[in-house]
Design brief:
The structure holds two protein chains of two kinds.
Chain A: H1 3-6, H2 12-42, H3 48-51, H4 57-93, H5 98-113, H6 116-136, H7 140-149, E1 157-159, E2 162-164, H8 167-193, H9 196-204, H10 209-239, H11 251-262, H12 267-296
Antiparallel strand pairs in A: 1-2
Chain B: H1 10-14, H2 16-48, H3 53-67, H4 71-85, H5 94-122, H6 127-135, H7 140-155, H8 157-170, H9 182-191, H10 199-228
The chains are: A mainly alpha, B mainly alpha.
GO molecular function (chain B): transmembrane transporter activity
Family (chain B): Belongs to the binding-protein-dependent transport system permease family. HisMQ subfamily.
Pfam family, one (chain B): BPD_transp_1
């Protein structure tokens, strides 16, 4: 934090002024809160039957916990697949061969520029729309064999030539493509952040390209990448909530589409409870990111002091807090 | 129907009006949310470095809550919660009021990320700058306004660019909050039983539309970052 150097230790006048600002700001915040409470009251939103459902174990067992399980399940599967995707394409972009480097770059840049929702829609609607046409063509058999033997792992079904992709697979597909591309950039930046001399020393002692990559560059890059990867996992976990749009039964869908119709339309209350769950989950993961960042940059020094707390600024794209770009 | 019909752009161009209307709604949302989130982010960053503890706590609390909540939840709470349930409407026309709630929700969410980017920019300003500003007698708000923030902004143009690109892509989520934009139009077309063969051209067209929106934004911020970089 930089607050310490931005202002002097307050003198008597500054202290008086700060006290006035404190009072005014507190009144403003309290006023906002009071306005909210009053408005909730005017609309009868404090009624017990709207809040009570969240105190019952049954509601948690039947709606919220299964939703949480689906959210965490999609996030876990997507994280693993996205990390594999990211490692392959990130290393691919650093390849010496243009016919590997260029396609990897195009794919990564394309999926980074696409909204996640469009990718989820692509996986959810497109196979269903085009598969009947393919089934009639000469590729019909190939389509059936592919779906039966490979895509069925992800729950994809084929029925009389029409392919149905379950919401889970569509959500995971979107998350893997988008976050995998982000991981690819993290991997690329992480490997580039390793000092050049390391690779040169590797070649000098006779290692090949694969040896330099696997034994010299990657092990050092992983420690730099860790905080950025964990920060991206928070983004991924938040993004599973987009699944509500295609009715994947995750936490948000359970809270907004299943509970309110049964309990006097208690949308606000459900939103507040579920929001608290998301915040707690993400804060726990962020804690981990901060801890990892502190651990991984312990031994480095800067040349000139900046307004930061000291320690080297993280490599571009490597900070757990600085470069998070939202639900991207 | 044969395979070549799958690439027939006829149905796509028959509905080009609806798709362009959707993109126009997306651009309207992104443009206003961009301006508002910049304002909200700057205010939040100033709060978080201010000398008054209450303001600092308010800024930190807001950023921590909003940054850790999924955007879908934020937008649905704005439209279903604040607008429908609490009746806090902007106008009697439902299209207008959902538009403004989508703008507010998206800028409130993006603002938290702008604030964090700016704060990391403040951290790159050399200590001597702040000390010099204090020693010539500038107050906190003067030194922030005239010395620290201008340099901080120049340092974070590239990260701000990625925040804005993420924001443009995030406009698609507004479809969950009853705001009708390009994804809503797309879903309507896909749900039409008559729209059988146009699915691939539709996806290609919408993807191209987003590339047209996102890539120039990226190049613009890259160019701006290079142009305004602080030489140290």
């Amino acid at each position: 934090m930089s607050a310490g150097v931005l202002f002097d230790v307050p003198g008597p006048r500054a202290r008086a002024r700060n006290r006035i600002i404190t009072v005014v700001a507190s009144l403003l915040l309290l006023g906002l809160a009071a306005l909210f409470v009053w408005r909730m009251n005017a609309k009868g939103q404090w009624a017990g039957e709207l809040w009570n459902p969240f105190l019952k174990g049954q509601i948690w067992r039947n709606f919220i916990l299964p939703g949480l399980k689906n959210t965490l399940g999609a996030a876990a599967v997507a994280t693993v697949l996205a990390l594999i995707f990211g490692a392959l394409f990130g290393i691919g972009r650093l390849s010496d061969h243009w016919w590997i480097r260029v396609p990897c770059g195009v794919i990564v840049e394309f999926f980074r520029a696409m909204p996640l929702l469009i990718m989820i829609f692509l996986a959810f609607f497109l196979p269903n729309k085009i598969s009947p046409v393919i089934a009639e063509s000469s590729f019909g058999t190939l389509q059936r064999v592919l779906v039966d033997n490979f895509f069925s792992i992800f729950g994809v079904e084929i029925n009389a030539g029409t392919v149905t992709v379950p919401a889970f697979a569509a959500v995971v597909f979107g998350l893997v493509m988008y976050n995998g591309s982000v991981f690819a950039e993290i991997v690329r930046a992480g490997i580039n952040a390793v000092p050049k001399g390391q690779a040169e020393a590797g070649y000098a002692i006779g290692l090949r390209k694969s040896g330099v990559l696997l034994r010299i560059l990657l092990p050092q890059a992983v420690t730099v990448m860790m905080p950025a990867i964990v920060a991206q996992i928070v983004v991924l976990l938040k993004d599973t909530a987009i699944g509500v749009i295609i009715a994947y039964p995750e936490l948000l869908k359970q809270a907004f589409r299943e509970i309110p119709p049964n309990f006097h339309n208690n949308i606000l209350q459900a939103g507040i409870v579920v929001g608290a769950i998301y915040i707690a989950l993400n804060l726990a993961i962020s804690r981990l990111a901060v801890w990892l960042e502190r651990r991984s940059r312990g031994s480095r020094r800067t040349a000139a002091p900046t307004m930061g707390a000291g320690g080297a600024p993280p490599a571009p794209g490597m900070s757990a807090t600085g470069t998070a770009t939202g639900a991207d | 129907m044969s395979l070549s019909d799958l690439l027939d752009f006829g149905p796509f161009f028959d509905n080009i009006d609806a798709i362009l209307r959707g993109f126009w709604a997306t651009i309207r949302l992104a443009a206003l949310a961009g301006v508002f989130s910049l304002v909200i982010g700057t205010v939040l960053a100033s709060l978080r470095v201010s000398p008054v503890p209450v303001l600092r706590a308010a800024g930190t609390g807001y950023v921590n809550i909003v940054r850790n909540t999924p955007l879908t939840l934020v937008l649905i709470m704005c439209s279903l919660g604040l607008n429908d349930t609490l009746g806090l409407t902007f106008s009697d026309d439902s299209g207008t009021t959902y538009y403004w709630w989508a703008v507010l929700g998206l800028s409130g969410y993006t603002g938290a990320f702008v604030c964090e980017a700016l704060r990391s920019g403040i951290n790159t300003v050399p200590i001597g700058q702040a000390e010099a500003a204090r020693s010539i007698g500038l107050t906190f708000s003067q030194s922030l306004r005239m010395v620290i923030l201008p340099q901080a902004f120049r340092a974070v143009i590239a990260p701000l660019g990625s925040v804005f690109i993420a924001m443009i892509k995030n406009t698609t989520v507004a479809t969950a909050a009853s705001y009708s934009e390009v994804v809503t139009e797309m879903k309507t077309l896909l749900d039409l039983p008559s729209f059988t063969s146009g699915a691939i051209p539709l996806f290609l067209g919408v993807a191209a539309g987003f590339l047209i929106l996102v890539l120039p934004t990226g190049y613009f911020f890259g160019w701006l970052a290079k142009r305004t970089a602080v030489a140290r």
